[in-house]
What does this fold into?
Amino acid sequence: MRRIGERRYAVGPKVSPDSKFGETVFYTLNQWEYLTRSTEDGRLAIDNNLLEGDIRIFATGRKNWLFSNTVEGARASAVVYSLM
It folds into this structure.
């Protein structure tokens, strides 16, 4: 990670921020602290896939139930989602 960190500063001034590669380089420059946090503390997950899987049911349901047939059904859905 240290070598990647050093390389991003060397490459940064040489690339256009408008190119896809430039967007990537500048993203890593701006987000380096957050990108490396999981390497500093082994208890932290490198991704949030577990959480994403847990909320997928609700996100899918929210999209599918966007159009409720009745006001009572919409209200019931709102109550259930507010409890989650």
Remarks:
- The chain is about 70% helix and 0% strand.
- Residues 33 and 40 are 10 Å apart (CA to CA).
- Residues 49-83 form one domain.
- The mean pLDDT is 80.
